[in-house]
Amino acid sequence: MKDSVKKTRYKKFNIPKTREPFVNCPLIPAGRDPETDEQRFWISSVNHNEGASGLLVTESGQYRTYRFGGEGSNPLAEARGSFYAAVYTGNETLWLCGGLNRVYSLNLSTGGITGYDTGAPSGLVFSGINYDEKTGKLLVSASAGEGRMLTVSFDTRAGKTARLHAADGGNAAYAGFPNGDGTYTHVYTSFGETENALTFLRWNPAAETLETKLRLPYGKEAQLSYTYVQDENYRAYVPGRGWLNPAAYRLEDGPKPETERGAVWFGRHKDYIYGIEGIPSTADGRLYRWDRRDGKVAELRGLTDLFRNYALRVTGRGEIAAVTMYGEFYKFLGNGEQSLHTVPDCVGICATDTLVKIDGHRILGTPFITQRFWTLDTETGRGFDAGRAAAGDGEVLMTWRLAGKVYMASYTEGVLTEYDPDKPGGFPVNPRTVVPHPPHAMRPYCGATDGESLYYMCNHKYGKAGSTAVKYDAKTGKASINDDILPGHQIWTLLYDKKRGLLVGGAACKLDMGGCKSGAPGTYAVTIDPRTMQVAQKFEAPAGCDDFWIFGQKDGDSFWAFYTVDGVRRIVALDLAAGRIDEIGPYRESEVRTQYGLYAGETSLYMVRRTDDINRYVGVCGRRIHRLTFDGSAFQTVKVYEPEDEFIDVFYSHGSVYALTAREIYAFDA
């Protein structure tokens, strides 16, 4: 083994930097600059690799960045690389939350940050946050699964949790607003099979109560607000429904726009109310101004690179401040005329979702959330941010190389784009969209190729069970899409069986973000006819399991798979010739443990990814990269690579192994 380690050769490159994504954390007022007295705004990026960037920007475009992570500072792993909830509480203090288990106070003058345990379990906190100046308490929430929410009331002066509240009615909390009487409205959003809904709760920080007051179904087309416009009596405008009176939690008549235009109204200055009609599939939008005196709505301008309506605010002067999903700061006059454009230096090495070898000297990678991609020349060592990979927001989650082109499938909406690395780049020409918005599609979850066509499965949009199946023929340029081919189930794994010309997958009742129960029982292995993209065979998995993962080919007729019941993993063989599932036995841990038996292990120790070779794996454990094979009960090491750094991820593509640290790529010949 040592000889193979010594003979291992590799090249080392810097991971290209890309513009960081400013998503999910809204743009919020952050007091006034102590030197210039200008109004300030705060927003933060997402970077699970180096740590998020915080951006503090004034009305005139002066800015300061804060880096949460990296050498010499707290990596803040609990915050998931981001702080989606933020509130300014005065005295140069900003309170931040990314995971429900901890909150942080940031001193904007010194950059010092202090963390506090809440006593709650970790859970992803979105933008909904309330703060009460009188008691010094703040309120944040996270999903506890299947429509349940857990909410923390934290006493910032005592530095400890005042109370934990549990309530039904949501999957996330995106907004909140004051009621004017010392209480606050906290808003849950729920995603369901047939409807979206908003749940309005009253928080009384003095009495420490949280009461559900109103649930407002929205059907399938909810206009989700992340900021609510209020009038002089603290009534909040709910798009399309009217004015919510928080004294009685009833909807009342009042000024309304002549047409909603699909807009979400984010701010008010005197009699003008401003809104944005977002287009998630393109990340573009239109800015509107509603005159509440006569209801007239004027379209002011188009905006690009938005992430919904998070990052727009009306200033005290009646101007509009906006930050794009790539951290560019704009300011517009009240009539929509652009008056300022500042491009802060918010770039970093983001976590890599996919990596593919373009040819003998080039590789392509896609970073988390940014909907961008980078390329790297392994002969010169030079890499660069190649810009947009697709329209919309989200990120590229699956990549393939086929006939000299690179194909990228994106979250959200399952869009597929084609990139020709030998032609000048620049979306939307190159990359170009080849499969636009498959119906109901959300996250590309698994895929395969037969060398001529690509096949991938997307789970449905939040709160809706099922999968959308996509086929793209790279020769003809034709796409075929079938929705919900196994009703109520998501297909999680997909491999191609060359012998039979079939796709083989595992399916279960799963939903993105755990939105709700699907109501469709059973877990299955399936074969799919790639000509029709319909299920050809269905094999029911053993009773009691809620997962069934196909992870390799056993022989010409069988595939390795595993399922889990009560935390115990068992290996089975799916025998296509005999049409049955054969029990093999319990999974046995080996030198390189795999938590799921499917290419992934404990993040702090190693990662494992499937290679292009269907029955061989590459695993990384600390500084050692293991090339593995499966013997029917455990993974066995067949080769070890051992350079000098700790790794956080590893990819295999077309004969090469790429191991990644936080900042570098090690390239090996496999």
What would you say this structure looks like, in words?
The protein is an all-beta fold and 670 residues long. It has one helix and 57 strands. It is globular, with a radius of gyration of 26 Å. The chain starts with a helix and ends with a strand.
Structural class, please? mainly beta
Calculate the terminal CA-CA distance, rounded to whole Å: 16 Å
Roughly how much helix do the residues carry, as a percent range? under 10%
Average pLDDT over all residues = 87
How are the strands of the largest sheet arranged? Answer: 1-57-56-55
What does the radius of gyration come to? Answer: 26 Å
Instruction: Report the principal-axis shape.
Output: globular
Figure out the total of helices.
Answer: 1
Multimer state:
single chain
The main β sheet shows up as:
4 strands, antiparallel
Query: How many extended strands?
Result: 57
| Low-confidence parts | 1-6, 71-80, 594-607
Strand content is: over 45%
Summarize it.
The chain has 670 residues and is mainly beta. The protein has 1 helix and 57 strands.
Question: What's the topology here?
Answer:
Elements: H1 2-7, E1 10-14, E2 18-19, E3 28-32, E4 39-44, E5 53-58, E6 63-67, E7 85-90, E8 93-97, E9 102-107, E10 113-117, E11 125-132, E12 137-145, E13 148-155, E14 160-168, E15 172-178, E16 184-191, E17 196-204, E18 209-219, E19 236-238, E20 242-245, E21 250-252, E22 264-269, E23 272-279, E24 284-291, E25 297-303, E26 312-314, E27 320-323, E28 329-332, E29 338-342, E30 347-348, E31 352-357, E32 362-367, E33 372-377, E34 383-388, E35 395-402, E36 405-411, E37 416-419, E38 432-435, E39 441-449, E40 453-460, E41 467-473, E42 478-483, E43 490-497, E44 502-508, E45 524-529, E46 534-540, E47 548-553, E48 558-565, E49 568-575, E50 580-586, E51 606-610, E52 616-621, E53 624-630, E54 635-641, E55 649-653, E56 656-660, E57 664-669
Antiparallel strand pairs: 1-57, 2-30, 3-4, 4-5, 5-6, 7-8, 8-9, 9-10, 11-12, 12-13, 13-14, 15-16, 16-17, 17-18, 19-20, 20-21, 22-23, 23-24, 24-25, 26-27, 27-28, 28-29, 31-32, 32-33, 33-34, 35-36, 36-37, 37-38, 39-40, 40-41, 41-42, 43-44, 44-45, 45-46, 47-48, 48-49, 49-50, 51-52, 52-53, 53-54, ...
